[in-house]
Write a structure and sequence with these properties.
By secondary structure, the protein is α/β, with parallel strands linked by helices. The longest helix has 22 residues, at 624-645. The mean pLDDT is 92. It binds pyridoxal-5'-phosphate. Its EC number is 5.1.1.1.
């Protein structure tokens, strides 16, 4: 039932040239050589982009792939591989998917809009899966590459497809339309996301509407599109509105009742109702879109109401958290299907912090496959993932236990029996992936395994980290390496968690401030070369034992290291030479270079890997002349050193803003710091290519009514202008929310509203003026995120974003997300 085509059929479909070594049957399309599970039947598309696809062909070949789509014959002496040659590899992938789509006549819903696509898709899936066999994009695979890979999954058992399409530039939608070929269209919320790729919001809308050009029916918000293009009106439109009763579905009454949201509407001249189990604005709008779509597809109002009330949160994210007994927990307890299992296993394999890896997996539902075919696929993924233990929960998975080739397997009939035996499994020092279908309630397992966090957490979005890394990669001249600065717990964002992602995404070097930080990374399984900026002579033994590379910045330090190397019979040890070109912190100054060269020339104990210096104001225009002077004196210094050494070294001077503003100073490598974490004074805030990766959030512990005459907090510094309300939240200066934020200087987001602090910040708590906000105990409060930026907090108390980030204390639990 899976898509199967022979290589020769595919060659015809994509009009490729090239010789076929073996006419293999293909079931899987891959674009990332690191994600190869099922080698023999995989077809690898060597997409060129930021990462040149051809570099990865050799990698894919070593992993057993024998069929490739490429834009030129690679320079490889192999006879058992097929290279299908096409002018454009992405176009080939897209036309193969479009061809595959044409083989089926199922109903296909195409979803576009700027927000809510994934939620609406997943909710429609929840709402209609009782009677439909649905195929949909995994997660939010909605791009020029993600859509073809999603559509490729259609099989003959499916009777409904739900695919979202995302675009960021003109001309992209035509391509996605040709692949998805929807007959029903849904337009979700239109906001400002990706506006920068288009001349105007109208152009963006026009472009999005191209998805619907062959749709028989279109669902959209009438209020948003009163000027809906005429040619679209010729289609059957199902409109919804919260303002005008001429819409097909007119929502005329909305009330929030105890955490839920009750709506009444007019539909076909009857009054109908619907209860949504969410109350935030975005969820309500997405729920109305789903309501309208279900009605448009012929569901009765009663069915809609009954099902919408049971909608559940859609979590597309994997969460990486600290667990009990020194375990790391990857929590994906909310959904389970083959695609998301593959993604989660892949994330598990990126984790190097523990030797042992364990998977807790429930039965998988609604795959559209026969059970034996399903579990054969599941077993193939698991057997390739090199895990140490498999804990299966449910009757079906146990029935196929012979398929699993894992050193240790355990099976339980249901979640309660696993919970009963959990202690006896002795989970410790391992990375555990928890993945279950919703009905198995695996959140109970995750609750039992995850360390209790105090309710203030720093969330780190690892996908954003990767996007930021790519943002800077795109700014580099060819061949320039990246050293990622992960000192001070990656600017407060984590240790091995961040480093694992950077290693997997192939940065060249890491840098830490002190030896201990480097040791922590090595113990977390990081194998990249690591430079230590401030190596302490007392720790040289550990530095060498953990293969860390010292930066030598003074004659004293240089001599100490040489003496150590002599005593330990070490030769050619990799070191880095730091030049002071104007920072006047540490480093060899211009007048010292000659002496340094004399010493380097005769030294067998070390090998200079790199020479570097640091810019003091690369982001500040008023200091550009000084920056130029620094660059010139850096050039003089490294020329002398390279002459003396007689070999080339890696030369680097640019930090984050240096990459952006001084492209000619990239030399062989750049040192990317705060930009990775989403802050760069030299990048305009409108450039959405760079996004903050961290969200600091806390919760309300109590709400109080306070008369104007009362004072609030220590030293009676706080009061309200009129009678009002305050909320006490679980964050204080011991968490890094400095006292300077007190008395109205700092602001936090409470249910979407920015409110000021009142009174002094205390050690573990502080108070907010919430007189004008609807708020309840337990509600979430945002200290900073992509909306309330770190940069603003820095301005409020007269500091820099670096300090805000690194201040978040270690007591605040870090939780990592990966989509
Ligand atoms: C911290 C640091 C960097 C990174 O600077 P950003 O401005 O955060 O990019 C680069 N080089 C050295 C020597 C550093 O100490």
């Amino acid at each position: 039932m899976q898509a199967t085509y022979t290589v020769s059929q595919i060659k015809g479909i994509i009009s490729a040239s090239g010789n076929i070594a073996e006419d293999i049957t293909i079931t899987i399309l891959v674009t990332d050589s690191r994600r190869i599970n099922n080698r023999a039947t995989s077809l690898f598309f060597a997409l060129s982009g930021r990462r040149n696809g051809h570099e990865f062909i050799a990698d894919a070949y070593t992993r057993g792939v024998r069929s490739f789509v490429v834009n030129s014959q690679p320079d490889m002496a192999v006879t058992d591989a097929t290279f299908l040659i096409v002018p454009d590899v992405l176009t080939a992938l897209q036309s193969l998917a479009a061809y595959h789509r044409k083989q089926f006549s199922l109903d296909v819903i195409g979803i576009t809009g700027s927000n809510g696509k994934t939620i609406v898709k997943e909710w429609l899936y929840q709402l209609m899966c009782p009677e439909k066999n649905i195929v949909r994009n995994p997660k939010s695979y909605n791009s020029q590459i993600g859509v073809p890979l999603s559509v490729w999954q259609i099989n003959s058992a499916n009777n409904l497809g739900i695919f979202e399409a995302g675009i960021s530039r003109p001309a992209e939608m035509d391509k996605l339309e040709a692949i998805i070929q929807p007959n029903i269209g849904i337009l979700t919320h239109m906001g400002t996301a990706h506006d920068e790729g288009f001349d105007s919001p109208e152009q963006k809308l026009q472009e999005k509407l191209k998805l619907f050009k062959n749709c028989e029916q279109i669902v959209y918000n009438y209020d948003l599109l009163i000027d809906f293009p005429d040619d679209m009106r010729e289609r059957k439109c199902f409109t919804w509105s919260r303002k005008f009763n001429i819409a097909t579905l007119y929502v005329f009454s909305e009330t929030s009742i105890s955490g839920k949201y009750y709506m009444r509407a007019i539909y076909k001249e009857e009054e109908i109702e619907c209860l949504v189990p969410f109350k935030d604005e975005a969820s309500i709008e997405n729920a109305i879109v789903c309501w309208a779509t279900m009605l448009a597809l012929g569901y009765t109002p009663a069915q809609c109401d009954e099902r919408i009330e049971r909608l559940t949160n859609v979590s597309m994210r994997l969460e990486l958290k600290d667990g009990i007994n020194d375990c790391s927990i990857i929590d994906d307890s909310y959904n389970s299907d083959i695609q998301s299992l593959e993604i989660a296993l892949n994330f598990l394999s990126q984790q190097n912090q523990h030797q042992k890896k364990t998977l807790i997996l429930s039965d998988i539902y609604q795959s559209g496959l026969q059970l034996n075919a399903l579990y054969e696929q599941v077993a193939r993924l698991i057997n390739n993932a090199k895990i140490d233990r498999l804990i299966g929960v449910g009757n079906s998975i146990a029935e196929y236990k012979e398929l699993f080739d894992v050193p240790k397997t355990y099976f339980f009939t249901d979640t309660p029996s696993l919970l009963k035996d959990l202690v006896r499994l002795h989970l410790h020092e391992e990375t555990i992936l928890i993945k279950g279908s919703r009905s198995f309630e695996f959140e109970k397992i995750s609750r039992a395994l995850v360390q209790k966090a105090h309710e203030t957490i720093l969330e780190i979005n690892l996908n954003t980290l990767i996007n930021n890394l790519n943002f800077y990669k795109a700014k580099l001249q060819p061949g320039v390496k990246i050293m990622a600065m992960v000192k001070a717990f990656s600017y407060g964002s984590g240790t091995f968690e961040v480093a694992n992602v950077l290693q997997y995404n192939k940065v060249d070097y890491l840098a830490v401030a002190y030896t201990d930080e480097g040791i922590a990374l090595r113990e977390g399984g990081i194998e990249l070369p690591i430079m230590v900026l401030n190596p302490e002579p007392l720790a040289f033994d550990k530095l060498v034992a953990y293969k860390l590379e010292p930066a030598l910045y003074s004659f004293t330090l240089y001599d100490e290291f040489i003496k150590f190397a002599q005593d330990e019979l070490i030769s050619s040890y990799p070191v880095h030479i730091k030049i002071d070109t104007g920072m006047h912190r540490v480093g060899f100054e211009a007048f010292e270079i000659e002496t340094l060269c004399d010493m380097l020339e005769i030294n067998p104990y070390i090998r200079v890997k790199s020479v570097y210096s640091h810019l003091v104001a690369s982001d500040a225009e008023e200091h550009d002349l000084f920056t130029l002077k620094q660059i010139t004196s850096f050039e003089n210094a490294f020329r002398q050193i390279e002459d003396a050494l007689g070999y080339q070294v890696i030369k680097h001077i640019a930090n984050t803003s240096g990459i952006t503003r001084w492209p000619n100073a990239q030399y062989d490598m750049v040192r990317l710091g705060i930009g990775l974490y989403g802050v760069d004074g030299a990048v305009s805030r409108d450039d959405t290519g760079l996004q903050p990766i961290a969200t600091l959030k806390t919760t309300v512990s109590q709400v109080k009514r306070i008369p104007a005459a009362e004072t609030i907090g220590y030293m009676r510094n706080g009061s309200l202008k009129a009678d009002g309300k305050i909320a006490t939240v679980r964050i204080g200066y011991a968490d890094g929310y400095l006292r300077a934020f007190g008395n109205g200087v700092g602001k936090m987001l409470v249910n979407g509203v920015l409110v000021p602090t009142v009174g002094n910040i205390t050690m573990d708590m502080c108070m907010l003026d919430v007189s004008n906000v609807e708020v309840r105990e337990g509600d979430e409060v945002i200290v900073f995120n992509e909306q309330q930026r770190i940069e603003e907090l820095a301005l409020q108390i007269g500091t820099i974003p670096y300090e805000i980030l690194t201040n978040v204390s270690q007591r605040v639990k870090r939780v990592y997300f990966y989509e």
